[in-house]
Amino acid sequence: MNILEIKDLHVSVGGEQILKGLNLSVEQGSVHAIMGPNGSGKSTLANVLAGKPGYVIDRGEIHFDGDLLNDVDPEVRARAGLFLAFQYPVEIPGVSNMEFLKAAVDSLAAARGGEQTTAVEFVKSVRKIATALDLNPEFLKRGVNEGFSGGERKRNEILQLLLLNPRLAVLDETDSGLDIDAMQTVADGINRFRDAHNCVLLITHYQRLLNHVVPDVVHVLSDGVIVKSGEKDLAVTLEERGYAWLTD
Amino acid sequence: MPVEDLVPSEYSAGFVTDIESETLPPGLDESVVRFISGKKQEPQWLTDWRLQAYAAWRAMTPPTWAHVHFKPIDFESISYYSAPKNFEDGPTSLDEVDPELLRTYEKLGIPLHEQETLAGVVRQTPNVAVDVVFDSVSITTTFKEKLAEAGVIFCPISEAVQEHPELVQKYLGTVVPQRDNFYAALNSAVFSDGSFVYIPPGVRCPMELSTYFRINAQNTGQFERTLIIADAGSYVSYLEGCTAPMRDENQLHAAVVELVALEDAQIKYSTVQNWYPGDKDGKGGIYNFVTKRGACRGARSKISWTQVETGSAITWKYPSVILRGDDSVGEFYSVALTNNYQQADTGTKMIHLGKNTKSTIISKGISAGKSQNSYRGLVRISPTADGARNYTQCDSLLIGGNSGAHTFPYIENKNLNAIIEHEATTSKVSDEQLFLCQQRGIDAEKAVSMIVNGFCKDVFRELPMEFAVEAGKLLEVSLEGAIG
Ligand SMILES: Nc1ncnc2c1ncn2[C@@H]1O[C@H](COP(=O)(O)OP(=O)(O)O)[C@@H](O)[C@H]1O
Ligand SMILES: [Mg+2]
User: What is the CA(A41)–ligand 2 centre distance, in A?
Assistant: First the structure.
């Protein structure tokens, strides 16, 4: 069964067409890597999936769990189980990570008709995940991403992934700017998330993450369309030969 | 959706109470002043004092330096006295209060039935003694007996004039002189009612004192006057709240609040100001032109102003502290939220006269819609104030792209030993921040409210507990509404 189904997607931003007829199917239990040169439209794809304002769908359809997503509000997509790990997570000064994460967990629980976790339970589960990701649990008291290093922000995204446990995780260059150890930690987090019921869209610039998180399919995005799809060794070829040979 | 759509305010206190009032025809002259004074059977000295203020006011012109814009007020079109009819002779107990009025206060969530608490029934706001001022008169003061046991005087100022004239005469107008400014002079001439508090030496007031102001009648101004005296070594925490019905006309509220703290005394004065702000297009709303000032007269005394300002079409207000006593402390914590076409010009003055005097100013301005929000603060250190210190932090938060935030800090330092620190920031609730919240399942309204509440944390911390909750809710209400 496909969790995500994208058909002939055309998207423009600021009046400029960025995605130009993209097709993609991601089935339950799978990891798809999206690679491609800078400016090819990877973040645009991630943002339009999450419903970011300003990303206009000119043509085509996005289906999530069988439902048409095109005009759905971002928070509704999130509650349906769509998660985006941001390439550049922003700060929200004054709102503590604790308060932010609890609000997120509560709103998802409410949408699923489930019970709200108690504060104690909640703190327990967050601390456990934080420790596994080498994040000092003290970070909970600080503002959302406030004063975080680039690496801490990325690990905080993975923490949220594990805490919110979505159906589809779109990870936008979560590996960039990380040293080897931090990348291993992030990769472990993603592998921990992965199971037979969810799926991952792994946007990356480098092949090295794919050594740790082995994808089922690798796609190459160039100038707003997928120009090639293959198995995981496609990533190795790309590392060796670059992207130019695909677009000539 | 763009951020600016998230901040329409729905005014929930905007209903009109249908009760018979005795209202003076519009206009102001000496006879009106005499009428008000006569109505309250005031002693001659007070009538004279009012007339003197009236004469001074006649010769003054409204201030124009504030960063606010409005059509000149026609002071002849305002009625200077309005009172619910049944109170002609003054209610002696709640049973005599117009039931319609009691319902008004129930709607506002203000407890007037003290007997319930005394009987041990749990209520939302325990241990708060309330004085309620409805239009021009004080309706009721709860918990009077319990306070009297502690020697605390808490009553309408009109009553204090009768019962404690020596205290009123000694302190009235000594912190805010009649001629201080145009609106203070007007208030001195026509003030109708307000609260009076006296805490005897060494007494810690056993409960929060609270006054609730409500403007109901049409075309009336509200000119209440509050006087609080904390005698040596005493402590009091005082809360003030205000609401008004929705009306298309602007209504004037020109209050004066005077605080006096003697040696080692502490006064904590908190305000949640939620006067009707006008509608989305800027029609109607209260002009809140208020003079609030405290005098730290004794050594080691302390006065703390905390305000949460969300209402009024225009706010013009600078709760200040004169730090005369050595080692005295002045504090100002402020949240001012403006939305739609609201304008706020608010801040404080810290006047350091005594040695080692300290002041702290924390101001948080939030501007949304097409509103204008200004902080205006003066820190003056006189040559006598050796070792004086001031810390000022002034933060502005913009929501949407059509509002304005301004800061006008004035520093006059005449003492080389003083330490003055000033920090200021301006930030914006960005679309990126909202999107991050939404992507995690948090809807945009809740996100804005979380961000704004986080921004105000340092000020909310200073509010008494019951009020902090109310203030948080109030911001949420001002921020929620027509989404999507
Ligand atoms: N807000 C915007 N307005 C106009 N063009 C944009 C905007 N955001 C991105 N673009 C353009 O869209 C293209 C794709 O960007 P992006 O999706 O971020 O690429 P990638 O993530 O693959 O590096 C780039 O050419 C970029 O300049
Ligand atoms: Mg990108």
Answer: 7
